[in-house]
Amino acid sequence: MKPEDIAETSRKRMLRIMPKNAVAVEIGVFRGAFAKEIMCITEPKELILIDPWVFQQPVKEQWSYIPWICIKSQADFEKEYQKVVDHFGNITNVKIVRDYSHKVVSTIPDNYVDWVYVDGSHDYDSVVEDVTDWYNKIKIGGWICGDDWDWSPEHGCPIEKAIKHLLPILPHDNWHLDGNQWWMRKI
Question: Does the model's pTM come out above 0.70?
Answer without folding.
Answer: yes
